[in-house]
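call fold(seq) -> tokens
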Amino acid sequence: MLSLILCIAGFVVGGIVFFFVGTTYRKKVAEKEIGSAEEEARRIINEAIKGGDSEYFREPARLTGEGTGFWEAPRGALYHSEKVVDGKIEGYQIIIPSTWNLAPINGDGEHGPLEQALIGVPVADIEKPINALRTVHSFDPCTACAVHVTERGTGKHFETVEGFADEKGNLSPIQQSFIDHAALQCGYCTPGFIVSATALLRENPHPTRDEIVHYMSGNLCRCTGYKRIIEAIEDAAERMNGGAK
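ret:
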């Protein structure tokens, strides 16, 4: 019996060690590949500059068009669709991987990927569903730019970023401030930041910078950085209070 226990323990410990070593090795390989790609990109740019190519803006061939694209992101498929008319965006749609993964039952009665994974997961303590949490985390969810309505028939009012502009299409002070401060780049996380900032200024019309940073800490941005976002929220708060700090 002791030999069996030791054998099982050895397999468990060995599996854990193998998992962590394998994960670390995989990350190091990825880092090396990314580093090599960055070096190659830097070499190409330097050679172009030395050759006299200093172009930083190119006029588009046409100002009207539309297109759709999919990108296989780490979390799953990322969908973009855009329509441009006379140089202005007329329609834009993005469906993030978490939208697919967290999808509810579809018209054919099939559960979404996450729901399928959660079915049958044991929950010993409903107040601390740790196993369910681990299952959800395994999908690496990002819902900063998504809205999910989970309560039906409650009479509660749910808002999305599309509803912040008025009936004439005028942007809210927060939306306009984000534009004025260039507090966005790819736009992937911007709706989530604007929704959170709107909630913050409704709860606290005169937040300090530290309060803004704390409240917005649940939203992630991977390209613009947070400085301009914080400044945009500070400016929006001032505008909404009639210019009084």
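The CA atoms of residues 173 and 236 lie 6 Å apart.
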